[in-house]
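Exam revision sheet. Question 4 asks you to relate a sequence to its structure. Input first:
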Amino acid sequence: MTDIMRLARGLTTIALLTAPLHQLVAEDSTRVKPRVVNVTAFDYRFESPTSVPAGTLTFQMKNAGKQVHHLWLVKLNQGKTAGDFVAAMNAWGSALKMPDWATDVGGPNNVGAGKASTATMTLEAGSYMLVCWVPSADGRPHVMKGMVKPLTVTAKGATPAAEPTADLTMTLDDYSFALSGPVKAGTRTIRFENKATQAHEAVIARLLPDKTLLQAVVWMNSGQSGPSPVEMLGGASGIAQGRHMFVTADLQPGKYVLLCFIPDVRDGRPHSSHGMAKELTVDP
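Answer key, structure tokens:
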């Protein structure tokens, strides 16, 4: 080893020893993958951990039920508890009017039986609820049938981790999906951002041959009654204004739809009825 090489190595060691701790943590976080949280969805319950450390987390939901399910995380604020949430939910009936102390923070969206969906979010410590809002054929959302479970996100054990690197960004607004570029086939990571004043979601589904966007909307709104016109591929569950999350999906060439079914804060109609339904083509 030459004198110049020894000097360079020594200077590097000194720089690491004298660097601020927050800088070292930030640099280290770029090499740490998000912690994976495994959740299994049944008809009608979740099997999942009761607590996880705060930080950047990848929620992986496997659908072990016979119906379509998603995993939707809601953060409870103002000291509210799981009991408060359930009481409010029972008062809503099927209206799904979220109280001002509950915030949508995302999660893996709709997939069919035997399929899996993932989503990555950065969560701060606090109390959360795991919820499935998907409607059954009888019109009742799965949450009203018991598909809701509390989750505690703890400050203890939190470790820094890097958020995924996105291939493109999808911006959610009232009432549109805006993509930062064309969608190409392959394994793609999409960053979802909500700039609207109300929460939005992005259901991603591939249209089956000869099926239409309208058929997909009707099928979902009717509680998946009859043969499906789409293959559900997940997407982003509801996120509130200013929040973001990431979804990685294997996209094959073909026709796809983007849908938002969250009830509007003004008239209660699903956002798809306000035009938040879009067909797109994934090119080879």
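Marking note for examiners. The first helix runs from residue 3 to 18.
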